Prior knowledge:
This protein is globular. Helix 3 runs parallel beside helix 8 and helix 4 packs across helix 7. The chain has 2 domains: about 120 residues, Aspartate Aminotransferase, domain 1 (Alpha-Beta Complex); about 220 residues, Aspartate Aminotransferase, domain 2 (3-Layer(aba) Sandwich). The strands form 3 sheets. The chain has a 7-stranded mixed β-sheet, sandwiched between helices. A 4-stranded antiparallel β-sheet has the order 9-10-13-12, covered by helices on one side. A two-stranded parallel ribbon has the order 1-11. The longest helix has 24 residues. It is α/β, with parallel strands linked by helices. Helix content is about 40%, strand content about 15%.
Amino acid sequence: MSKFWSSMAKRTEPYVPGEQLDKANILKLNTNENPYPPAPAVSKAITKEMERTIQLYPPPAADDLRQSIAAMYNLAPDNVFVGNGSDEVLAFSFMAFFEPGRTIRFPEITYSFYPVYAKLFHIPFREMPLNEDFTLCPADFFGAEGGVIFPNPNAPTGIYLSLDQVQEIVENNPDQVVIIDEAYIDFAPESAVSLVRKYDNLLVVQTMSKSRSLAGLRVGFALGDPTLIEGLTRVKDSFNSYTLDRLALAGAKASIKDQAYFEQTTANIIRTRSWVSKQMEQQGFHVLPSQANFIFVRHEHIAAKTLYEQLKAANVLIRHFNKQPITDWLRITIGTDEDMEVFFEKLHKLLNEEN
Length: 355
């Protein structure tokens, strides 16, 4: 720890992302990336933008992209905020809507960036325990002093909270902002975006990294009442007016236009998820009912860390969280059918060796 660090730098505990190994022949099932490439129009739009205006700053308000996102959800552009990935949008949201000294609530098992942001911005928090089956108890989030944030579907469990239950949480925090982190919502039944016009305290955050295969472009967005969007914009413009570059803006807009491709690849992942879940159960795993592009599993007899290390040695990366109460669980991204065939081939070999 350097003597030159500020108190903010000293108190932070940085988020640890999934491994990104620079190694050939790795089957990467650890960071929930989409196994399919982006829509064909994306690369064409990026190439065209590079040839045309790359020497100019991007439009700071990203009006064209905001209009495209607004049209997709039947909202107005002033209901939409865009940022450099949903992580940045979430960070801005913590600064814009959560007050230092006022306790916010999020689940005990959740996206591990939330406590990082809370500590960084001096925001106290309560981690609400989940039920034994890893579901959220909505009443635990009623009447939060400083606000509420949780993913839906939850991460890393993949469990989805119904829209009626989400609405209960929003209604029971009328004076605080409730942030629903919907990074994986396109693999689940229904988004909370339909509630945005009804509740001025609801902010829905989404990403184009997962379902639209744009993790490399870093495009995230928030949907909410215009007053919330204005708050986010004030924070953004106090840091960096140009958070999205021209290539990201062009690629994201092109992706939105190809709805058929998006629907097809998303359906493929949902279908593969169902097949993989059944196969895992047949191999002696307990599998939570996921509505995301990953599954959360525990083997009846073999330690999660052991399986994680053995699969890594076999050039298969999955995610192990070495912390209670999920140290016995593994998160596995859903790849293509071919990817998962390779995964099962190596998994079967390891399980047979254990037996």
